[in-house]
Input
Amino acid sequence: MFAEERHQLITSLVSSHGRVSVTDLAERFDITTETVRRDLATLEADGVLRRVHGGAVSADRSSTIEANISERLERGQEAKQRLARAALKLIPAGAGSIILDAGSTTGALAELLTDRPNAASLAVITSAVPIAATLAGNNNIALELLGGRVRGLTRAAVGHSTVEALRSLRPDIAFIGTNGIAADFGLSTPDPEEAAVKAAMVRAAQRVVVLADASKLGTEALVQFASLDQIDALITDGTLSPELASALAEAQVEVVLV
Output
């Protein structure tokens, strides 16, 4: 196979999967890892992808790039629904308390909460204005919206007052979204203020459940907000790399594949 053909196939793989691995590409094309790295360097110079440890990611997956909530709502609706349904099963039938982090997948979970049949009263704490709007007025839900400055991009409360409010709370479960989850870097997000709120949610909850679609696996954003040993379960629709699977197992994280 000519180099140009490989470059086209690598470009297609990055476009469809968001990330490629040096070792996987070497096996796929029956070439050396050194040749793969030269291919990736060429494609990076052309602006097609960005090289990271062990492989490459799409060029638009910078550690500081973040889609707004409207864009997120339009992406991967079917996957978000599967993750949300799996998360719903982890909420006890009796009364309890949960945190819903800001995000489109946790937003899908909020939608499901409004339809729970014969549900006992559930206390829901959130920093997300859209989630609060979804749940407001539901007689089976005791809603608490955390205060703070609302960040326009995600429509979530951030800042010192948001973090401080979480210090006095101890909910049963926190459902957390993330922009990336990686073996060494843990969970991360592009914005420092959102990272501070997520970290406070993780510290507050008795059980931490992370919802991450396939595009988040193996990805690192700018700011770490939790290590893998701080979470209890990961719900995902993606295939874990051996490195990430091993790190999650070592951290005793339950993995729920949907």
User: Anything to note?
Assistant: The chain has a mean pLDDT of 89. The domain at 69-257 is CATH 3.40.50.1360 (Rossmann fold). The two ends are 36 Å apart (CA to CA).
